[in-house]
Amino acid sequence: MLYRLPDDGDTKLRAICTECHLVHYENPLNVVGTVPHFGQRVLLCKRNIEPRKGKWTLPAGFMELGESTSEGAARETSEEAGAHFKMGSLFTVMSVPRVGQVHLYFLAELENEQFEPGFETLEARMFSESEIPWDDLAFRTVQETLKYYFADKKSGNFGVHTLNID
Amino acid sequence: MLYRLPDDGDTKLRAICTECHLVHYENPLNVVGTVPHFGQRVLLCKRNIEPRKGKWTLPAGFMELGESTSEGAARETSEEAGAHFKMGSLFTVMSVPRVGQVHLYFLAELENEQFEPGFETLEARMFSESEIPWDDLAFRTVQETLKYYFADKKSGNFGVHTLNID
Asked: Average pLDDT, stretch B12-17?
């Protein structure tokens, strides 16, 4: 791979394979997930994979081809927590340009508190606001989404929140 | 390029270069743009590039690394229309899984009606709702975003709209 200008009038350097000459376009990736909630509590998963192994996260992962943002968020929630839930509305849209990502979280109403965590998750359990391990959350976008969630829960008015994280 | 399972426990087929063995992850791309508005009218650009050359679109394009969704939308609006505007809030988030894309549009308040279209644009001009060339719009997401815009304009209440387009 070598960075050079493609021959098609593009104005940005692109990674181009020195063997097969394919242009490897690099664009931001979407991370999609949910805020699974039940009563006054939300579901967090303890990560069993790097980065941030051992830290707590909302279920989320990279959006794949062939799915919508909401379908991807639901898939990750099933894979990581084995949760049973009803998908709700879009809740946060956060850009993280430093790592080339956009994180989108949806609300998800849990149908019960039985979970079957996948291999990426050490433990899945419910937390009330006062129990949230704020200092042991895996990602800043998880922290911000949880803060918005408990604030909106108090006001009784759930909106869509956007944020840019430097 | 050959599609096979990577050696890292991944469960999806990935495109892997037969020469350099790099895994070429293919994920959905974000298209970011704006609804540039002034009084009762919105700005549309006539496309000078394929696909849909000659059709009308809201200014939009692929989000690049190093920028937020909002910054990408502003960049595309400058590049394609040479417009002067103040960025507003997130307005539509639409998944188009058939083409592996997520389209995000922001509101943008024009400061005047002077435009300097770039090479991708044949013509940039303002349209009231009744003047919109509905049958000559380039993309379904442009159509849906314009419909939401004029509906919210009437109600005086601008929300964030999400939609999955098959």
From this structure: 76
- Asked if A24 is an interface residue toward chain B (Cβ–Cβ < 8 A), one would say yes
Q: What is the pLDDT of residues A67-124, one digit of tens each?
A: 999 999 999 999 999 999 999 999 999 999 999 999 999 999 999 999 999 999 999 9
Residues 6+ apart with CB under 8 A from B1: A20, A22, B15, B16, B17, B18, B24
Measured between CA atoms, how close is B37 to chain A, in angstroms? 21
Name chain B contacts of A164, Cβ cutoff 8 Å.
68, 70-71
What 3-state class would DSSP assign to A141?
helix
Q: What is the pLDDT of residues B25-41, one digit of tens each?
A: 789 999 999 999 999 99
8 Å CB contact of B68 and A164: yes
C-alpha count within 13 angstroms, C-beta hemisphere, residue B116: 4
ipTM: 0.90
Take residue A10 and report the two structure tokens written for it: 């593009």
Candidate from B29, B67, B97 with C-beta closest to A68: B97
User: Is residue B69 within 8 Å of residue A95, measured between CB atoms?
Assistant: yes
Contact A26/B at CB under 8 A: yes
Contact A162 B70 (CB under 8 A): yes
- Rounded to a whole number of angstroms, the distance between the first and last alpha carbons of chain A is 28
Strands (E), chain B: 2-4, 14-16, 23-24, 29-38, 41-47, 56-57, 60-62, 85-96, 101-110, 121-128, 161-164
Cβ–Cβ under 8 Å, residues B58 and B144: no
Q: Which residue has the tokens 């109600």?
A: B155
Strand partners, B47: B121
Nearest CA in chain A to B99: A66
Q: Is B63 helix (H, G, I), strand (E, B) or coil?
A: coil
Tokens 């063995």, residue located: B21
Among B18, B54, B79, B20, residue whose Cα is nearest residue A18: B20
Backbone angles phi, psi at A141, to 5 degrees: -70, -30
